[in-house]
Predict the 3D structure of the following.
Amino acid sequence: MCKGLAGLPASCLRSAKDMKYRLGVLLQKSDSCEHSPPHSKKDKLVVCQRVSQEEVKKWAESLENLISHECGLAAFRAFLQSEYSEENIDFWVSCEEYKKIKSPSKLSPKARRIYEEFISVQATKEVNLDSCTREQTSRNVLAPTATCFDEAQKKIFHLMEKDSYRRFLKSRFYLELAHPPGCGSEKQKGTKRSADCPSLVPQCA
């Protein structure tokens, strides 16, 4: 039988609802989870509801830590969407997917799609690359290999690392996850806190 939340302190309920809402919005706004193994929307939400504060704090250590975590990637992409600059993270994710392709026959069409979407001067989501890297990547696509986008991906990663990642760490998209409103407003003993402030997912017996 499911244990209800009616008996919890009001501040705990508000904290749980706020965190659930924020994580739910991030996942709905971001389609980055499409690049992970298939899960239902409910499954994805549960995963992100259970991300620990320790994990969230690791996201501030490096961009790699942030975007290697499903929920970190979703939060970062939602932030970039708010700035209308999600093409960089979309390109990075597409390159990661591309490098996982095992069949040589699938490399060429995938490489062409990435080129036309992000590299070409007529690309719908053109990324900011210097002319040398753009030209080299264009040549690589003519005879695609698993590493043909490596240099361009590295340039975009460093661009995000120096620019948008730093702004992300100061934005509400990160701060509201790193410092959620807790149950501190109601005095509780540390040993009792975990019982009074459970995870956002109701526990069923």
Confidence is low (pLDDT under 50) at residues 1-5, 27-47, 183-205. The chain has twelve helices and no strands. The longest helix spans residues 10-29.
